[in-house]
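Input chain follows. Return structure tokens only.
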Amino acid sequence: MIDEPPHKTEYRPDIDKGGPDGFPAHSAAASIRFGVSGRCPRCGEGRLFTGYLKITDRCDVCGLSFAGHDVGDGPVVPAILVIGGIVVGLAWTMEVTFQPPLWAHAALWGPLTLGLSLGMLPLLKGLSVALQFRLRSTEEEPKPGGG
């Protein structure tokens, strides 16, 4: 029986073979797709999260360190703007069209806001990590002369 390497990447047409770090150099779209799906933006196979929003320390497949990837409030701001726009627009339309009682608004928009928030935050956090990786905003070698 032949031993297989621990990390085997299948051929994908959106990958440019031969990145500078020894891993396939993915297109920007592929890196973003990996991040949004909760996968490592370098290899596309390792898990990005250990919990709901907790970023893992290191990719278990390719070993990429996520220690420097601090997205902070970056994913929250677009989530607030998008979800707020959706919910306020729908609530206003419903109020103007049907004029429901206040309890109907509370019963409908509270759970919708919570559900959209819980669904969007991991996607946006993965996107933020993927963009940080893609734009090389972390783990860069210091440049000569401090520039």
